[in-house]
Please model this.
Amino acid sequence: MIHPIPPGTRDVLPDEMRELRRLQTALLDVFESFDFSEVRTPTIEYADVVERGDDVAPAYRFLDDRGELLALRTDMTIPIARLVATRFGEVEPPYRLSYIANAYKAITPQRAQLREFGQAGIELIGVDGANGAAEVVEVLTKSLEAVGLNRAVIGLGEADLWRCLLSDFAADPALVASTSARLAAHDIVGLELELETADELSLEQTACLMKLIQLRGGPEVIGQARGMGGPAFEASLDSLQGTCDAIAARGGADRVQVDLGLLRDIGYYSGSILEVYDPSVGEIIGGGGRYDGLMSKFGVDLPAAGFTLYLELIHKAQLEQGRTDD
Model:
């Protein structure tokens, strides 16, 4: 008799479980080598806690026996922000914390997406600017090496570039929001169509915006974007340049690709943003960035940055790379 499980969930059998444990151990060893201490938070949080991350809506909400609205966590960044604000009041920052945990999201079943998925990552809270972002990238680079993904690439962008350039072109806030969502979803065809049909943008401005998102490569692409926008846009480019310089000073620039069209679909990111790609799989296998405004939503005004790796996709990339190497 077959007893089905919900779409987007999976059973893990012994051989794969052993491989996943080795993967998790390798990542935790790297985190510990950089003095990131492992923590654990509840799978269930109060819904209003999860919703403090901008544009973060919990997929699974329910009432407990007291009528309190609860939710399954959507990631680990928000719970760790709550934990630091609640439990670390007597400890001087910075805080270097790591985790291995499951998170939950809504899915499109036809796309074979997981609604329950494993994450491993770090949160660096209390170190601001380029130095904090560069430390996060260094740990991320060593983590990818530890799990054998030597061809993986770290995409590096700046969260405000797109918004600043559109604002310089006097675009309506609704257009900024809708096109940002398309860019974060990598819907380039829909993005170009929306820009071309926007009354407030000229053909030259549309062409400039489309050129921006195609600029990727080494730090030299930052120079290619100079002069496209106004002071705010230039300040974002300066910030990105500073991050590139700090990463290079730590010796981690070889794996980093600057991507001026990079935008994440998580609203609490600000400043430097990251995505991780591996040629063995056709999906983003990790991401992160700065989230300097999130901690203030929990009453603690501290800068912060971090990354997460998606364990099932990391494992898939390992398997595919092994087949290629064989």
